[in-house]
Design goal:
The chain is of the alpha/beta class. 30% of the residues lie in helices and 19% in strands.
């Protein structure tokens, strides 16, 4: 472990212009303190990847195994949220649509209604009530047909590749393009059927009688769009995803990214979009493997240098900077950092991650320093790992590199 002066070794990985410059690096004293913070008899330095970068100049202040490909745990959410914000924009909203296939005869709709989802992770019963009010406002009182849930925008895979069995339903609600109230009632019914049943019941409460039973179906071409519901902004969704480390939200966002070119929403297609954005930002993707959006998968891989590149790219992009930084937990105050690093509240913002294979922390210090610590084990000793991470960040926060930077 040593300070790096100037460019990182090209033979170690492809140097990213967004990461590295030729400014002076850290003092030997800071480098020694950072190296010491990572040492523990319960942790493997050989399975630790860490880096600290001056966000303004790109100077690498400290690096250890920075190009090592390791399991990232929930730090995997950062590339996904960053790519979504970059590709879709902070103001983007998920749409859920209600279509009618049939004809109208006064207050009667002769035919089926289709509730078509596009992966809104926030879709709730209150949204269905708005659909019902919209139908009632059109003067419709009877549906001579069925309410059919349409999840065709995504594949039908409910969980992620490389997940433990209990993760589905335990760490994440089941995945679908159409999920209401996080599929409360699953696994007795599939998410889209639960949504169709909920809308059927909601319509009845609003004075609209539906003759047929709820079911599943794909919206036919030529169907009439009767109503649409839009989610909160992506910037708000990103806060849930990162600050609170919400696995379900991350998975839904990743699959939705797979639909941006009009294709089927799958985790693999979404991962390709994330990698495209990383390459476009000149972030090195060697050793990076994105299998799911949450980091629950044992098959995910990231490097410290790639993750630092993502964070710095988020800081440097004025279009998404505020949304990206605000999505991070605040030390001693919010999200998964509310009980950590109290001495550095409003100074340190970051993203945690913990599975039995990995304990990770990455983020920013005063938006002036970017840091990443990814620690692996079989299993990882997560309490010593968290202690090491906090010492690492505290040393950075007390260094001359941590002076506040002007807002971007």
């Amino acid at each position: 472990m040593r300070p790096r002066h100037g460019l990182l070794s090209i033979c170690a990985f492809a140097v990213a212009a967004t990461i590295v410059s030729s400014s002076p690096a850290a003092s030997d004293d800071l480098s020694s303190r950072l190296a010491k913070s990572l040492r523990s008899p319960q942790l493997s330095l050989a399975r630790t990847s860490a880096i600290a970068i001056d966000a303004r100049t790109g100077t690498v202040v400290f690096a250890h195994n920075e190009a090592l490909s390791v399991v990232p745990a929930s730090n995997a959410k950062l590339p996904v949220s960053w790519a979504a914000l970059a590709r879709l924009g902070p103001a983007y909203r998920f749409a859920t649509e209600l279509y009618g296939a049939g004809t109208r005869a006064g207050p009667v709709w002769e035919g089926n209604l289709y509730l078509r989802g596009h992966g809104d992770p926030t879709l709730a019963s209150s949204d269905l009530a708005r659909f019902a009010r919209s139908i009632r406002a059109r003067g419709l009182t009877t549906i001579r047909g069925r309410i059919l849930g349409d999840e065709s925008a995504f594949d039908a895979r409910r969980g992620g590749q490389g997940w433990k069995a209990y993760f589905l339903g335990g760490e994440s609600a089941p995945l679908s393009a159409l999920v209401v109230d996080r599929a409360l009632g699953w696994p007795a019914y599939s998410p889209p059927l639960l949504a169709a049943r909920a809308l059927h019941e909601t319509l009845a409460k609003h004075g609209v009688t539906v003759v047929g039973r709820p079911g599943l179906g794909t919206t036919p071409a030529g169907a009439l769009r009767l109503a649409v519901d839009h989610s909160v902004r992506l910037s708000t969704i990103a806060k849930t995803m990162n600050r609170d480390s919400d696995n379900f939200t991350a998975e839904m966002v990743l699959k939705h990214l797979g639909t941006v070119d009009g294709g089927l929403g799958t985790s693999a297609r979404g991962a390709r979009v994330v990698l495209e954005e990383m390459r476009a930002a000149r972030i090195p993707v060697g050793g990076v493997r994105i299998v799911d959006g949450s980091g629950l998968s044992s098959e995910d891989r990231l490097t410290a240098v790639a993750l630092a590149g993502v964070i710095r790219a988020g800081l440097e992009n004025p279009r998404i900077r505020t949304a990206f930084v605000d999505s991070l937990a605040v030390a001693g105050r919010s999200g998964t950092l509310r009980k950590r690093l109290w001495a550095f509240t409003d100074v340190v913002k970051g993203k945690t991650g913990t599975t039995n294979l990995a304990c990770t922390l990455s983020g920013v210090v005063n938006d002036a320093l970017v840091f990443v610590v990814l620690q692996n084990g079989s299993p990882v000793a997560f309490w010593p790992a968290r202690l090491a991470q906090d010492k690492f960040v505290a040393a950075l926060a007390r260094s001359r590199f941590a002076r506040p930077t002007a807002s971007g």
